[in-house]
Specification:
about 190 residues, mainly alpha
């Protein structure tokens, strides 16, 4: 998940988590040496309150920063932007336009396919792979568009190929890979032979 965060979000999350870690180290290693009765009867309540506040703060930071990263990724995938918009007298509908071609680099996608171990699980002629753990991609992706392929990478349990069990393919590629890497992989998997 940290790879998907922007630099600002990663720094913010690191600061919150760092504060909790420093507190834990101080209260476990330093304070007991200097004050053997730590936290003592009077300090116990404050210690528990501070521990709970820091724990909840860390969890909230993870939730807030991850949510913002997911929203940014979703906006990047759909092409939405925030900020000012310009007006135009021409309007078009997406229903009449053909789906956009993948924006990735198929050659980089081929390398990523091998590097991520996809070739050990899937048969795919363009990759020269013959894995049998997952579906034969030459057949499973036939007639499928880039949106389907992308969704199959980031949410592999959404639609399971016939004859295969859910949760065989890791569901972490959406977080572990950058949007560019996913674009490259989609371009490789959807290229015409």
């Amino acid at each position: 998940m940290l790879l998907a965060l922007s630099t600002g979000h990663a720094i913010g999350l690191a600061l919150v988590a760092g504060a909790f870690i420093v507190f834990a180290l101080l209260s476990a290693l330093v304070l007991p040496k200097r004050w053997p009765q730590f936290p003592g009867e009077r300090g116990l309540r404050w210690f528990i309150v501070l521990t709970v506040v820091l724990c909840i703060g860390t969890l909230a930071a993870v939730e807030v920063f991850a949510k913002e990263a997911e929203e940014q990724t979703a906006q990047a995938e759909t092409g939405q932007t925030t900020g000012t918009t310009s007006t135009s007298s021409t309007t078009t509908t997406t229903a009449t336009q053909p789906p956009a071609a993948p924006q990735g680099d198929p050659a980089a996608g081929k390398q990523l396919f091998a590097a991520q171990g996809c070739n050990s699980c899937h048969t795919f002629a363009a990759a020269g792979s013959s894995g049998t753990v997952g579906p034969d991609l030459d057949k499973a992706l036939q007639g499928k568009d880039a949106a389907f392929v992308r969704e199959s990478i980031v949410d592999p349990n959404k639609e399971i190929a016939s004859g295969y069990q859910p949760s065989i393919m890791p569901g972490t590629f959406g977080q572990a890979l950058t949007p560019k890497q996913i674009d490259d992989l989609v371009a490789f998997l959807t290229q015409k032979s």
